[in-house]
């Protein structure tokens, strides 16, 4: 293989990988200089000139002519007067000899190895470029096409044909994709595994929801509205606390849009995730009240030391505060940074009811605490639920729930 074919084939491969010309030349020169060092032990007195467009390569060995009896005759950058005269008869001592070295002088095996090294260098460069490209985009939304669906992940390709990964854990539970679908997600992280970059995407991250708001709400994108905090149960429910330093802007109204036009686009992308947008405030009581919306809170007691909040509501508001699957109260707790305990306000007709604490001799204390966390603090409030509802709310074992019902019903039968 001559130099022209080698360089042209490399240049074509490099261009197909979008490698710029200066980088291409630098790689070629590095590889050829490595060949020189292997054959001549040094490349300090060699000049390498490459024209990748034409496939031209010129390698010159530069040496100073010294007397045949000189002590320097064995230096790598010196040549004897006799040897120099063999190259050019009219050379004189003290002049420099530019001796052209043809690629064939390195041997066929060295040239083949150089070709493989060039291709490997481009592939390594391609990996570095891919890593750096997506490392800079961590936290940003991208769109990619599904090309393979596996059990634990979905493989996608970007516009340049790079492979991206959307793991099962980073997918919304309601996501259903087919080959060829376009998927929106954020770049979650970029891992380097055995020298290969792996770009991990996410649709469950709170950052994904934040970026969707930036896309749909100009005031958020421009910084006029600040998203203070986002908490999510992906595909089910999310709470977004927002604030504006401009009194003329209603942050909640701007995020929701006229007749919900702005937030509907976000909800659709998140598989109909229920999104509550609330005004952030440093007034903790008011913040908790807003976080538990749509439930109406009657009163609040804060225990700063234990980071717990007791919220009291009318009986018909308890289920709203807890929400389907307990998502509302879980998200509210995460949003305000306190554990929230929900309690029913006792009415005059509750005189016949019995507080769960009265059953501590028959029901384990931790079970009573689990029930109270979901707003169930009396016997009748528990008995008002079905077995399925109580199991779902508390995640207690069915046998435990059966025993609770038996103990509580026995109290009223007596």
UniProtKB/TrEMBL annotation:
Compartment list: Cytoplasm
S1 motif domain span: 139-204
Keyword terms of this UniProt record: Cytoplasm, RNA-binding, Transcription, Transcription antitermination, Transcription regulation, Transcription termination
Coiled-coil ranges (or none): none
Keyword RNA-binding: yes
Signal sequence range: none
InterPro entries for this protein: DNA_repair_Rad51/TF_NusA_a-hlx, KH_dom-like_a/b, KH_NusA_2nd, KH_sf_prok-type, NA-bd_OB-fold, NusA_N_sf, S1_domain, TF_NusA
CDD domains for this protein: KH-II_NusA_rpt1, KH-II_NusA_rpt2, S1_NusA
Superkingdom of origin: Bacteria
PROSITE patterns: S1
Protein function: Participates in both transcription termination and antitermination.
Stated family: Belongs to the NusA family.
Oligomeric form and interacting partners: Monomer. Binds directly to the core enzyme of the DNA-dependent RNA polymerase and to nascent RNA.
HAMAP family linked to this entry: NusA_B
Name of the protein: Transcription termination/antitermination protein NusA
């Amino acid at each position: 293989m001559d130099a022209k074919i080698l360089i042209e084939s490399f240049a074509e491969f490099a261009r197909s990988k979008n490698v710029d010309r200066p980088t291409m030349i630098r790689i070629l020169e590095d590889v050829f200089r490595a060949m020189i060092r292997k054959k001549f032990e040094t490349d300090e007195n060699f000049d390498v000139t490459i024209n990748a467009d034409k496939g031209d390569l010129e390698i010159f060995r530069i040496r100073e002519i010294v007397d045949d009896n000189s002590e320097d005759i064995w230096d790598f950058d010196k040549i004897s007067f006799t040897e120099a005269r063999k190259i050019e008869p009219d050379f004189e001592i003290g002049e420099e000899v530019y001796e052209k070295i043809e690629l064939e002088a390195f041997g066929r095996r060295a040239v083949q190895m150089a070709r493989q090294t060039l291709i490997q260098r481009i592939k390594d460069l391609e990996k570095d470029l891919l890593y750096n490209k997506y490392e800079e985009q961590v936290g940003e939304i991208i769109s990619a096409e599904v090309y393979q669906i596996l059990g634990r992940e979905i493989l996608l390709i970007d516009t340049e044909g790079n492979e991206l990964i959307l793991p099962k854990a980073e997918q919304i539970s309601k996501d259903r994709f087919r080959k060829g679908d376009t998927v929106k997600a954020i770049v979650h992280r970029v891992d380097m595994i055995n020298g290969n970059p792996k770009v991990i995407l996410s649709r469950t991250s709170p950052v994904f929801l934040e970026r969707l708001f930036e896309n749909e709400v100009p005031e958020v994108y421009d910084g006029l509205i600040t998203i203070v905090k986002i908490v999510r149960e992906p595909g089910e429910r999310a709470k977004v606390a927002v604030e504006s330093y401009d009194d003329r802007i209603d942050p909640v109204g701007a995020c929701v849009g006229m007749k919900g036009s702005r937030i509907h686009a976000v909800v659709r992308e998140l598989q109909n995730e229920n999104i509550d947008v609330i005004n952030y405030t440093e007034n903790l009581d008011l913040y908790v009240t807003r976080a538990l919306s749509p439930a109406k809170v009657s009163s609040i007691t804060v225990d700063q030391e234990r980071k717990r909040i007791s919220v009291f509501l009318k009986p018909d508001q308890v289920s709203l505060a807890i929400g389907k699957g307990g998502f509302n109260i879980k998200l509210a707790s995460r949003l305000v940074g306190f554990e929230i305990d929900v309690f029913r306000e006792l009415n005059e007709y509750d005189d016949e009811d019995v507080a769960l604490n009265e059953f501590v001799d028959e029901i384990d204390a931790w079970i009573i605490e689990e029930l109270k966390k979901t707003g169930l603090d009396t016997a009748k409030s528990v008995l008002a639920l079905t077995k399925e509802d109580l199991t779902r709310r508390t995640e207690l074992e069915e046998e435990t729930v059966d025993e609770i019902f038996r103990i509580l019903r026995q109290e009223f039968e007596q």
